[in-house]
Amino acid sequence: MVWARTKLMIWDYIFEPVVDVRISYTGKTPEKFYKKINEYIRTIFNIPDAYVQEKNYLWEKNKDGEKFEVAWEITKILDVFSYIVVEIDLRGFSAAGEGKATVRLKPRLITEYPQDTIFQQNLLYEILRRTWHRLFYHRKRMEYLNLGKELVTTFESSVKRFGETMNGEPESREEASQG
């Protein structure tokens, strides 16, 4: 990641034009997905705890059952310029041991170029940067996109397998939603 005040950012969704992937589960004890997703984040993406941020945590228990909403943002740094960001949302409810859970994945590859100094804001620098990007770095970014696809599909199939072991029928659907 580039630490700069001003930077040029290039965003690519991992699965173009699909923005997010959703997995729905209906069955016994959907609240168990919370611990399992936490485990999968660290093992599949192979990132330390410092790069996993729990953005939202809401767990309500009442006499009827439980309702939960949890959101994570994980960052996998690939090199100085590029990193993968995956937003994971878990929402669901449970009543009398039965319930529903929905997992949403929103993965993207981000490349940042600093533009702080006068030289970095210069036309000559921009010409050199674009040339370097097209001739050399574009191939590396395509490798990073493929790595992101592998990681996200491995995560998705692991979550589906976990749902199947809990005697539920996970349904996966990819939605081309904006934002």
Keywords:
179 residues, alpha+beta, 2 helices, 31% helix
How many beta strands in the DSSP annotation? 7
Biggest pleated sheet: 7 strands, antiparallel
Q: List unreliable stretches of 5+ residues.
A: none
Total helical segments: 2
Average of per-residue pLDDT values = 87
Helix percentage:
25-40%
String of helices and strands: EEHEEEEHE
Taking all Cα atoms into account, the compactness measure Rg is: 19 Å
Strand content: 35-45%
Q: How is this structure best described in words?
A:
By secondary structure, the chain is an alpha+beta fold. It is 31% helix and 41% strand. The protein is built from two helices and seven strands, in the order ββαββββαβ. A hairpin with a 4-residue loop joins strand 4 and strand 5 (82-95). The protein is elongated and about 65 Å long. The two termini are 22 Å apart.
